Amino acid sequence: MFTGIIEGLAKIVRIEEQGANRTFYLESDLAGELQVDQSICHNGICLTVEGIEGPTYRVTAIRETLLKTSAGGWRVGDTVNLERSLRMGSRLDGHLVQGHVDGTAVCEARADREGSVEFTFRYDDRFAPLLIEKGSVCLNGVSLTAFNVSNHTFTVAIIPYTYHHTTFRDLRPGNPVNIEFDLLGKYVQRMMAINEKAS
Fold it and tell me: Residue 8: pLDDT above 90?
């Protein structure tokens, strides 16, 4: 479990194909603090640390992850957001994030708002019931508040600190991001669907 508060960045330095899977070698200042078998959130995707060597560590994304997230398009030289798993008793500064990406959204626009940067995204309308005005949404592992929500688009505002310390600084219209909707909304939707079938 994560909170959507980014701790650092990692740069992809090597990629290896392993059948239908893909192993990523990443370089990060956090590598020395990691342990094998730890769950680390990479741009919103929960991946397991398999090995560490100096400032570099490796993780593997399976076929399902490569197909349903932006990981399938990651290349050497790309940078990803990192967050280690939540410790029991820690402050929950963002919102509860599983690292189980629901799909991708596409950046449609970015606008400088004299102190913040607004990004508008288009997403699959089948997820519309899971997104509400001023509700939480996780984009590339970052906990954010959605506004101007419609069945197809929504906007988020990025404060300067987040902009300069995450991959949002490099995000441009046309780029995909991983999106995870609020866990509570998913359970509510599931319960409503079950009740409708039962009635």
Answer: yes
Residue 195: partners with Cβ closer than 8 Å, 6 or more residues away = none
Distances (CA, A) of 103 to 65, 67, 96, 127: 10, 9, 17, 10
Residue matched to tokens 């398009």: 73
Tokens 């701790």, residue located: 7
Residues 129 and 174 in one domain: yes
Is 46 found in the same domain as 77?
A: yes
Sign of CA dihedral 126, 130, 134, 137: negative
Structure-block tokens of residue 2: 């994560």
Per-residue pLDDT of 44-71, as tens digits, reads 999 999 999 999 999 999 999 999 999 9
Domain-embedded: residue 169: yes
Q: Which of 84, 115, 132 is where one domain is finished?
A: 84
The domain spanning residue 141 has which CATH number? 2.40.30.20
User: Which domain, by its residues, includes 20?
Assistant: 8-84
CA dihedral 28, 65, 127, 97 (to 10 degrees): -40
Overall pTM surpassing 0.85 (yes/no)? yes
Instruction: Find all residues with CB under 8 Å of 152, minimum gap 6, and list them.
Output: 122, 123, 125, 128
Lowest-pLDDT range of 34-38, 59-63, 172-176, 185-189: 185-189
